[in-house]
Amino acid sequence: MSSDTFTHSRALIGRHLRHLTRTPQQLMSITLMPVVFVLVFGYLFGSAIDVPGGQKYQEYIMAGIFIQVVMSNLGLTALGVVGDLDNGLMDRFRSLPISRAAVLIGRTTNDLILVAWSFVLMSGIGFLIGWRVHNDFLSVLGGFGLLLLLGLATSWLGALLGLALRSAEAVNAIGAIIVMPMSFLSNAFIPLDGLPGWMQSVAEWNPVSAVVLACRKLFGNAGGSTGDSFPMQHPIPMALVLTVALLALVVPLTVRAYEKAASKK
Amino acid sequence: METAISAEGLRKRYAEHEVLRGIDLAVGAGEVLGLLGPNGAGKTTIVRILATLLPPDAGKVTVAGYDLAREPKEIRRRIGLTGQYAAVDAVLTGRENLRLIGVLLGLGKRKARARADELLEQFDLADAADRPSRSYSGGMRRRLDLAASLVATPSVLFLDEPTTGLDVTSRQLLWQMVRQQVDSGVSVLLTTQYLEEADQLADRLVVLDKGTLIAEGTPEELKRKVGGERLEVSVATAAELPAVVKAVADASADPPRWTRRPVASPSRWSAAWTPSPRSRPS
User: Fold this and answer.
1) Nearest to A18 among B73, B91, B106 (CB)
2) Which of B19, B91, B142 to mutate: most A Cβ within 10 Å?
3) Are B87 and A19 a contacting pair at CB < 8 A?
4) 3-class SS at B206?
5) Residues of chain B contacting residue A11, judged by C-beta atoms under 8 Å apart
6) Residue B74 with chain A: CB contacts under 8 Å
7) One digit per residue, pLDDT tens: chain A, 265 residues?
8) Residues of A within an 8 Å Cβ radius of B
9) What residues of chain A lie within 8 A of the CB of B101, using their CB?
């Protein structure tokens, strides 16, 4: 990244953070939503479900709840991009002599900061309902690193979606079609060995599953029964590889879509 | 640089719909060219192409001396774009909007601040500078948008229907501010639906309809060509027409041509006069 791109991205991150401090509803949604997630999934469900191996459900489930915020980042970024297209700001940015990636880097980085903020809150609430990490500090940090990396990928995917669909309604509809299977056809909430064979394979190769399992390992939380497919046997390297592959696929497509972006009129 | 904008054989098609069917136009340095035409004529498409936002299907374009296909980034350094709707961030204040553009243009923080202050003063926004721009009136937002397009001190300015939807006072204020830019040597491509606006600002006009240029000239020349005077009188029955025609002919110094045609109700007829070619002022 050239120093210009860095300066431009930083200026645009500043713009987004100002939005956050001035629109209370946005701040509420990234603050309250994660808290509600933890309470509903961790506390409410936790009292009804037993984890094989005798560990507490709260410990099993936290990685899955973190993933929900990571996945919802797709919609956050997509709607932001649609907003900029709608009000003509995207045209203004595109008529400026700035790097093609700066606008996208600014937005995705900002949204990643919001995800990190949600993680901090969720960890606090998680602690209160009984979630504990049983590993060294660096491993735990590595787990959050993987989550953030996946969050970056979903954010770029969201930007691509926003640029391609150019309408909030379409983003909500198509976004759900992408997010739902990715988060629920994974080990985020359920052990995979109960699934029919082909579905189990899909779920095991889902980057979300690798990241979730890697996080459970790095946090020292129970993994549940994991299956013997390659990604489930080597979750940490595979989480890294699958997420980086997703980024490598999506980022160039998104930059191209930005170049061609036209407001819907 | 003698020509600010030159376009030859510009074409653009969306699926089945041919939006531009071979447009040639040129804007001289320091000139204001008005692009006049109804909605859907292709005005905005032309602006979007010239401002590097949309690639043409065919045509050779240079803006500010640079080739559009080869050096769009050089063009972006030298143009300002004010769109149909004000493209400013509604949450940020006027000052923050202009500073952001300044930083993105590589002015550096200090210069960006100074340039923002200067423009806020110049566009009569200093008092509102620290309010979020969503609280601005329509006219103020357009002025902020215009200011935002001038942060880089561009040599070529695109104004895409800059005053659509504004009240008379705001419109005149904006015109005055555009004129200041023209006086300082900026070349302008202005699109508008209003003949009055074109008349006020443009040195030369082209008229666009369904993707083709159908007329060109100074505002005066065009008004003479297309805007002839016309008198229409409706009568209750066809039998009354000859008397009316005679009365009008007697009253005018030069016998006008006239046509008769039925109007909505079959029992009513009207006579319409247009000045005969001889009687036009030249």
Assistant:
1) B91
2) B91
3) no
4) strand
5) 100, 103-104
6) 97
7) 678 899 999 999 999 999 999 988 888 888 898 899 899 888 777 776 666 666 778 888 899 999 999 999 999 999 999 999 998 899 999 999 998 899 999 999 999 999 999 999 999 999 998 899 999 999 999 999 999 999 999 999 999 999 999 999 999 999 999 999 999 899 988 888 888 889 999 999 999 999 999 999 999 987 766 778 898 999 999 999 999 999 999 999 999 999 887 654 4
8) 4, 7-8, 11-12, 14-15, 18-19, 22-23, 87-89, 91-98, 102, 262, 265
9) 92, 96
Closest chain A residue by Cα to residue B88? A89
Query: Contacts for A89-92 with beta carbons within 8 Å, 24 or more apart?
Result: A89/B87, A89/B88, A89/B89, A90/A261, A90/A263, A91/A263, A91/B48, A91/B53, A91/B81, A91/B83, A91/B87, A92/B81, A92/B83, A92/B87, A92/B88, A92/B101, A92/B148, A92/B149
ipTM above 0.90, yes or no: no
Chain A residues whose CB is inside 8 A of the B76 CB are: 95-97
CB-CB under 8 Å, A262 with B53: yes
Please tell me the distance in Å from A224's CA to the nearest CA on chain B.
47
Confirm whether pTM is higher than 0.95.
Answer: no
Residue B192 half-sphere exposure toward CB, CA atoms < 13 A: 25
